[in-house]
Design brief:
single chain; about 375 residues; alpha/beta; 14 strands; binds S-adenosylmethionine
Amino acid sequence: MDDTTDFDIYVVTTPGLESALCAEMQAAGFAGLQAGKGGVSTRGGWREAWRANLELRGATRVLVRIGAFRALHLAQLDKRARRFPWADFLRTDVPVRVEASCTKSRIYHAGAAAERITRAITEELGAAIADDADIVIKARIDDDLCTLSIDTSGEALHKRGHKEAVNKAPMRETMAALFLRQCGYDGQEPVVDPMCGSGTFVIEAAEIAAGLKPGRSRAFAFEKLAGFDAAAWSALKASPPAVAGTPPTVRFHGSDRDAGAVKMSQENAARAGVEDRVQFRHHAISDLTAPDGPPGLVIVNPPYGGRIGDTKQLYALYGALGKVLRERFAGWRAAIITNEPALAKVTDLPFLPTTAPVLHGGIKVTLYQTAPLPPAA
Ligand SMILES: C[S@@+](CC[C@H](N)C(=O)[O-])C[C@H]1O[C@@H](n2cnc3c(N)ncnc32)[C@H](O)[C@@H]1O
């Protein structure tokens, strides 16, 4: 893989969290950033694409644009796809799949477009095609311009490779990381999640504090591309993190009234290698107290309205959560992710203005956050 080529790299994220991802990319030193709808673009060689996969906590996947040509009709698409230098990117022994989309173009049939490009790859390069292929080529035909990208991630990046056990409504790691960032969390303060479920917020916060790279334990699609430089990749993985970690002291606390969730969180934390930084306890919100030491951030996504449980109980639960935080967490910032403004309101917490809602498992959720809470009246 020649790393002198400069590509357009598009980092996909959860819609609504683009500016948070952009801030993360800026802090990580990515160049030429432009936030769009559903992602952020940057420029760089293969190393930057690898680094985006390895280091960005808020990235869902990383697409590398490998070429573009005009295609006014299917015969032209066929001809130009056949002339494309596929061997520069794809291996003949690794199956490929093509996904196409068409907007504002004379070619309007995405299935036919995908079929032409697929045929070009099989007949000109000799690569196999498979529905479950590790490599996905994305063809986007917009305004008669066909842009070809490779999905360099493979499995979506919220799958860090540490969480085997999940509870009913787990938060995606990528979203948890960006919500933590939106709360101004920088790895230096303690974090508490009193309804921790599978432990996502607590483990993500502990990993950030430890300076661990989120992609350290998993494989990526780019490892199966033509000319992949395994030695350079190993060197990148072993390089020091952009932000150095802090020494381990227990500063990340999760609790849940479900004993199974607590066990799950402990196991997930051990797999992620942060068990010496986290503490999980089995108790309900009513028994929650602030940990000793300096204040930090309480972040929690309680059960959502319309998803788990019944409405009356939910109002009582949010009310109890708000009361505990107001009475026992003076000096701490509180952040609640929920889908119903009325549920946030019932906490009676002094929320700051909210940012754009975000889709979580098909439900629109909003981050409600406070400044440091005043002493209890
Ligand atoms: C939406 S899930 C949280 C998911 C979590 N953020 C994750 O990523 O896995 C809500 C959690 O709240 C817990 N819960 C509900 N009522 C509670 C209460 N009164 N006290 C403590 N935990 C409670 C549930 O057991 C469940 O694990």
